């Protein structure tokens, strides 16, 4: 009998070992991993520097709670915010928790309930975040939702009509990950920022998937005209050790006082060791340039499959890339795993590529060869 709740689909691959861009399953089969725990292991699997820092921490202390000072939190907060207009951090354990913290913060700050999120967005699966998420499939059977989330159209100037003096916050992903790797357009973001300024509306950017160098900058919003009041993070922050965070401006940092929010595990010493080491590896000019260069290289390689019929577009930022098909891609994802390449869908029609941010050209070439092999077999190319 399967003693797990059936919240996930059938899972046939169990990974037993992982290193860099490669994983090996329990039968000994090796795969090139272009999923990376769904945009989590940005430094690749078991990066030696990150592993060493985690091991050093494991040899000192694992957990203390936030009753006691955890100095790693201060160092990680500084590494996340230095050189930006953001100044403060709160640590939690996941993306959904980070978004919940941001939700509480803007509610308390503005004392308004109306929040604008966007169609096809994904913000998590707690009750408030189900309400925030602009995809019906995640809400099905759980209604009524936390009220006052309005799903305005993404990349559409009609969204501006919803923004008024009653609006607490505009809440968005710069690249919608689960929604199909859809990149927000700069002109639209500029218009959102202007409307937010006009009506004193707060801006929350959900960088849970885009954050920590995934798009070629520390945060994706840095490539846009937006100046968010709150940024939410998780996934790539700990290289695979669970950690989430919100970052705030100085004004937003005055909203929570002692007792207004907290977490037993949040900012735990082991999580902070993982986060600090991850930032050391990824937030260098060389690493960020590498992400942009490899992203361009992968996009260029994928664009040769775009024929306007079966594949219509390659889109994304940095190493968060989608190959958009006119047909469902689930079978191709399965077949790619069979030939040793792990990729993940972003909605039914998009094959999503989320390799290690340290991925090499030859690993990208290997992925492209495997993709070509499958598409040739299917008579697509
Ligand atoms: C943009 C975004 N926000 C929030 C979440 C939820 O994060 P978590 O699964 O860590 O709770 C995800 C997860 O895919 C995400 O992509």
List keywords for this structure.
381 residues, alpha/beta, Aspartate Aminotransferase, domain 2, Aspartate Aminotransferase, domain 1, 2 domains, seven-stranded mixed β-sheet, four-stranded mixed β-sheet, 11 helices, 19% strand, globular, binds pyridoxal-5'-phosphate, EC 2.6.1.11, Aminotrans_3, identical protein binding, aminotransferase, transferase
Widest sheet, order of strands: 4-12-11-10-7-5-6
Cα shape: globular
The CATH architecture designation of the largest domain is 3-Layer(aba) Sandwich
Provide the helix percentage.
Answer: 25-40%
Helix tally equals 11
Description:
It is a single chain. By secondary structure, this protein is an alpha/beta fold. The protein folds into 2 domains: 49-282, Aspartate Aminotransferase, domain 2; 285-352 and 366-375, Aspartate Aminotransferase, domain 1 (Alpha-Beta Complex), CATH 3.90.1150.10. 33% of the residues lie in helices and 19% in strands. The protein has 11 helices and 17 strands. It has helices at 36-39, 48-58, 71-81, 95-110, 127-132, 136-139, 186-199, 269-282, 285-303, 330-338, 361-377; strands at 15-19, 22-25, 30-33, 88-92, 114-118, 149-152, 167-172, 175-176, 182-183, 202-206, 230-233, 244-248, 311-317, 320-325, 341-342, 344-345, 350-353. The strands form 4 sheets. A 7-stranded mixed beta sheet has the order 4-12-11-10-7-5-6, with helices on both faces. The chain has a 4-stranded mixed beta sheet with strand order 1-2-3-15. Strands 13-14-17-16 form a 4-stranded antiparallel beta sheet, covered by helices on one side. A hairpin with a 2-residue loop joins strand 1 (15-19) and strand 2 (22-25). Helix 9 (285-303) packs parallel to helix 11 (361-377). The protein is globular and about 60 Å long. The chain starts with 14 loop residues before the first strand and ends with a helix. The relative contact order is 0.16. The structure holds pyridoxal-5'-phosphate. Residues 94-96, 99, 122-124, 173, 177-178, 206, 208-209, 234 line the site of pyridoxal-5'-phosphate. Pyridoxal-5'-phosphate (PLP) binds next to helix 4.
């Amino acid at each position: 009998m399967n003693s797990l709740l059936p919240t996930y689909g059938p899972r046939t691959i169990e990974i037993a070992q992982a290193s860099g861009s490669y994983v090996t399953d329990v039968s000994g089969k090796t795969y090139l991993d272009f999923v990376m725990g769904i945009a989590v292991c940005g430094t690749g699997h078991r990066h030696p520097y990150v592993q060493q820092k985690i091991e050093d921490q494991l040899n000192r202390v694992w957990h203390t709670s936030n009753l006691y000072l955890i100095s790693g939190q201060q160092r990680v907060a500084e590494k996340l915010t230095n050189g930006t207009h953001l100044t403060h951090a709160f640590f939690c354990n996941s993306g959904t928790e980070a978004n919940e913290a941001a939700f509480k913060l803007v509610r308390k700050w503005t004392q308004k309930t109306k929040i604008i999120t966007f169609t096809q967005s994904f913000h998590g699966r707690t009750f408030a975040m189900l309400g925030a998420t602009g995809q019906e499939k995640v809400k099905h059977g759980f209604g009524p939702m936390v009220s006052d989330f309005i799903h305005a159209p993404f990349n559409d100037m009609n969204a501006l009509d919803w923004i008024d003096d009653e609006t607490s916050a505009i809440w968005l992903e710069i690249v919608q990950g689960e929604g199909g790797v859809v990149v927000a357009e700069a002109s639209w973001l500029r218009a959102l920022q202007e409307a937010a300024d006009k009506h004193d509306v707060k801006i929350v950017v959900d960088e849970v998937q885009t954050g920590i160098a995934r798009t070629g900058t520390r945060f994706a919003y840095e490539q846009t005209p937006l100046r968010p009041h709150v940024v939410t993070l998780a996934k790539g922050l700990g290289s695979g050790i669970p950690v989430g965070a919100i970052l705030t401006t100085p004004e937003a940092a005055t909203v929570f006082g002692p007792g207004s929010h907290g977490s037993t595990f949040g900012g735990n010493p082991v999580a902070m060791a993982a986060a600090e080491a991850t930032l050391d590896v990824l937030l260098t000019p060389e690493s960020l340039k590498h992400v942009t260069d490899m992203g361009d290289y992968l996009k260029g390689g994928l664009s040769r499959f775009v024929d306007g019929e079966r594949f219509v577009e390659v889109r994304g930022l940095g190493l968060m890339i989608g190959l958009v098909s006119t047909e469902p891609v689930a079978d191709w994802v399965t077949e790619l795993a069979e030939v040793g390449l792990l990729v993940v869908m972003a909605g039914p029609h998009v094959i999503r590529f989320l390799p290690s941010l340290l991925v090499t050209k030859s690993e990208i070439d290997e992925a492209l060869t495997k993709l070509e092999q499958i598409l040739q077999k299917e008579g697509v190319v």
